């Protein structure tokens, strides 16, 4: 399960969350495990059911104004009950000043108490989107991800089969490189896979005989992109004379990543085959399929219709000969 510590949340750059620590700095190691958030309004009244300690807890104007109206004894008891659940952190919105009882209890229980200047609605929207990207399942795949005609093509295959060379040829044809060698794959709601390059290898490509090259520097920013939805996977395989390959395109296969299936094409590689052209055509064909047009099925339907017509004509001939 993906996790994000409160310290990592604070250290994230360019998030626009504007977070500062007010108390409970000893608990910055605590982890956030869910992209969903809660507003513990009822908990401040003593109702602790259905609270989830692994979620961020947001305290807005309503919660803090209610807390201030309680007697000091009741407020202390309710806040202590809340903090005893061991939340990952509490976040105050609109730059409000928390009551002393909240500062003292979060410090005592080592629960980070953070504050943002943003309004509750805007902050909840921003933090939810951020946590969705960071906490949804992710993995790494050995391969190359290329944007071909707007289609995210994941090239796979054994080392040395020619994945990077194909990707380089596609870049020369005007397509865009997303990642080479290691593709970081993340899910995105509802059921979409996105791929991006690793921080170390971004924009770099290994070409045997040349070494490491920087695609961004060689071809410009138009030749690369940060991330791309994975629409189809293509596995490059060495040609095997004894193997049976799909020649009609009716044998639909899938490649499963993080519980999500994407169409899979197995492409045999041998001297004389222009693999880059085949990948371009495969990407175009995937676009047609997503628009509801399947060339292979259309051909099969036409073939079956023609066979039925021929069979019907043949039966009429036989019946006519018998009548004579």
What is the count of DSSP helices, taking H or I runs of 4+ residues? 9
Share of helix, binned: 25-40%
What's the gyration radius in Å? 29 Å
The largest sheet is: 8 strands, mixed
Number of domains: 3
Shape, per Cα inertia axes: elongated
Strand fraction equals: 25-35%
Order of helices and strands: EHEEEEHHEHEHEEHEEEEHEEEEHH
CATH class of the largest domain: Alpha Beta
Note the gap between the termini.
Answer: 79 Å
Structural class: alpha/beta
Low-confidence stretches: none
Care to describe what's here?
Keywords: ATP-binding, Kinase, Magnesium, Metal-binding, Multifunctional enzyme, Nucleotide-binding, Serine/threonine-protein kinase, Transferase. Belongs to the HPrK/P family. Residues 5-131 form the HPr(Ser) kinase/phosphorylase N-terminal domain. By secondary structure, the protein is α/β, with parallel strands linked by helices. It folds into three domains: 4-134, Udp-n-acetylmuramoylalanyl-d-glutamate--2,6- Diaminopimelate Ligase, Chain: A, domain 1; 136-293, P-loop containing nucleotide triphosphate hydrolases (Rossmann fold, 3-Layer(aba) Sandwich); 295-324. The chain is 35% helix and 27% strand. The chain is built from nine helices and 17 strands. The chain has helices spanning 6-11, 61-69, 72-83, 100-108, 120-135, 163-172, 215-219, 275-290, 295-323, and strands at 4-5, 20-23, 31-32, 37-38, 56-59, 90-92, 113-115, 138-148, 151-156, 176-188, 192-197, 204-207, 211-214, 227-229, 232-238, 253-257, 260-269. The strands form four sheets. An eight-stranded mixed β-sheet has the order 14-11-10-8-9-15-17-16. A five-stranded mixed β-sheet has the order 2-7-6-5-4. Helix 3 (72-83) packs parallel to helix 4 (100-108). The longest helix is centred in the last third of the chain and has 29 residues, at 295-323. It starts with a strand and ends with a helix. The model has no long low-confidence stretch (mean pLDDT 87).
